[in-house]
Amino acid sequence: MSLRINDIAPDFTADTTEGEIRFHEWVGEGWAVLFSHPKDFTPICTTELGAMAGLKNEFDKRNAKIVGISVDPVENHIRWKSDIQKATGHAVNYPMIGDSELKVAKLYDMLPASAGATSEGRTAADNQTVRSVFVIGPDKKIKLILTYPMTTGRNFQEILRAIDSIQLTMKFPVSTPADWKPGEDIVIAGSVSDEDARQRFGAFETVLPYLRKAKQPSE
To answer: Of the residues 45, 71, 92, 96, which is catalytic?
Structure first.
């Protein structure tokens, strides 16, 4: 199975550092960010898990829960937590899924079915494709997928920016241009007539017949 934007995020039940979760039930009526790691006690992932812990309040503001996953058992995650705090100054404050049977990694198309049925004996290189971020909306659909190589730490400010854009564009008939940040001008959807655009957004700039910019709407 190959996952794409707007597919229903696969549901699952798994053990975590905060007890068992049923994923869709855990997501509830809000948003979720599922971010995966190829192995515990690896350097770049250690920095990433700490960075996410430091940004948890920002995700909370967006009604977005955080959940990490690594294809190692929960007991390893618990031991890893102290290293994460030591290295980054941030204590992990969200659940971390133990996926020692590789079920979730396969369900989310991060490992092939032929990868086997256990994380035991597997190296980070064996699991290098387990380096994705999935943003999931209240409708349980996948809104964004990003996959990074093991050598490149993820930019979680970009994940926050993308969530801001996705949440805005679900509420209004707009899109956000390249490098957009909250508060900057948006692009009016092509389905909106000029007359309707003036009623909705006030004055707007017609850069091209198909590119109209306006102030970001707030309500």
So the answer is: 45
Q: What is the pTM of this model?
A: 0.94
Q: Does domain 13-154 have CATH number 3.30.420.480?
A: no
The order of strands in the sheet holding 31-37 is 96-98, 64-70, 31-37, 132-136, 142-147
Q: What is the mean pLDDT of residues 152-161?
A: 97
45 included as an active-site residue = yes
CA–CA separation, 121 and 197 (whole Å): 59
Domain 172-214: CATH class, spelled out: alpha beta
CATH 3.40.30.10 intervals, the chain: 13-154
- Burial string for 133-171 (b: 16+ CB within 10 Å, else e) reads bbbbbeebebbbeeebebeeebebeebbbbbbbbbbbee
Strand runs labelled E in 159-201 = 174-175, 186-188
Angle at which helix 74-88 crosses helix 43-54, to 10 degrees, equals: 70
